[in-house]
């Protein structure tokens, strides 16, 4: 899209830019406040706000290309923002559940039975230890434990020999065990 000068007369500004900028001026502040309230992170809220208005521009272009009437309201903008917030929260929950599962896995390896409070603390320690793993080891653990893939499937997905997958998994478990023993 071409850049448009601010000093162009209103009749020379394409309707696409005019509509998008009008909606931005009317609803950006309210959307941003909504996003900050739900995400508690102003930087992330700004990113979602930008994504929302990018989707607005995509929608406008799509409707113009199809020569269809465009009906976008504040509700549409809030729905797009809501869906993005929901997606982020789902991802956070999924990640938290993965770490809890990994902690449970290590507890089972040690033959321990933990109550929920101890398991939550263990999950946090596992998360920290897991984040320190090199990417080459981390991806193996993620696919094996979080995605519950077999070693042969992991080798196929990553296009590496199965022996390399097994070695990396063994190394990752060893590093995680050592890191967790430091916490005890």
Structure, explained:
By secondary structure, this protein is mostly helical. The chain folds into two domains: 10-91, Orthogonal Bundle (Rna Polymerase Sigma Factor, Chain: A), CATH 1.10.1740; 132-183, Arc Repressor Mutant, subunit A (Orthogonal Bundle), CATH 1.10.10. Helices cover 78% and strands 0% of the residues. It has seven helices and no strands. The chain has helices spanning 15-39, 42-65, 74-110, 116-131, 135-146, 151-158, 162-183. Helix 1 runs antiparallel to helix 2 (42-65), helix 2 (42-65) packs across helix 3 (74-110) and helix 6 packs across helix 7. It is elongated. It starts with 14 loop residues before the first helix and ends with a helix. The model is unreliable at 1-14 (pLDDT under 50).
Q: Which residues sit in consecutive blocks of at least 5 with pLDDT less than 50?
A: 1-14
> Average pLDDT, to the nearest integer?
77
Shape: elongated
CATH architecture name of the largest domain? Orthogonal Bundle
Provide the domain count: 2
CATH topology assignment of the largest domain: Rna Polymerase Sigma Factor, Chain: A
Structural class designation: mainly alpha
Using only CA atoms, what is the Rg?
24 Å
Number of helices: 7
- Determine and state the CATH class of the largest domain: Mainly Alpha
Distance between the termini: 58 Å
């Amino acid at each position: 899209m071409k850049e448009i000068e601010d000093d162009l007369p209103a009749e020379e500004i394409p309707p696409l830019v005019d509509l998008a900028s009008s909606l931005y001026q009317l609803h950006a502040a309210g959307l941003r406040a909504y996003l900050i309230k739900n995400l508690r992170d102003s930087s992330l809220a700004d990113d979602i706000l930008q994504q929302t208005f990018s989707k607005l521009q995509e929608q406008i272009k799509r409707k113009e290309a199809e020569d269809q009437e465009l009906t976008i309201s504040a509700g549409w903008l809030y729905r797009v923002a809501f869906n993005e917030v929901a997606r982020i929260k789902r991802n956070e929950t999924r990640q938290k559940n993965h770490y809890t599962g990994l902690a449970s896995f290590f507890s089972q390896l040690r033959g321990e039975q933990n109550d929920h409070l101890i398991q939550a603390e263990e999950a946090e320690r596992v998360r920290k230890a897991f984040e320190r793993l090199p990417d080459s080891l981390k991806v193996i653990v993620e696919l094996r434990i979080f995605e519950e893939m077999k070693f042969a499937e992991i080798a196929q997905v990553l296009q590496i020999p199965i022996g390399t997958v097994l070695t990396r998994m063994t190394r990752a478990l060893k590093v995680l065990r050592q890191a967790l023993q430091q916490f005890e």
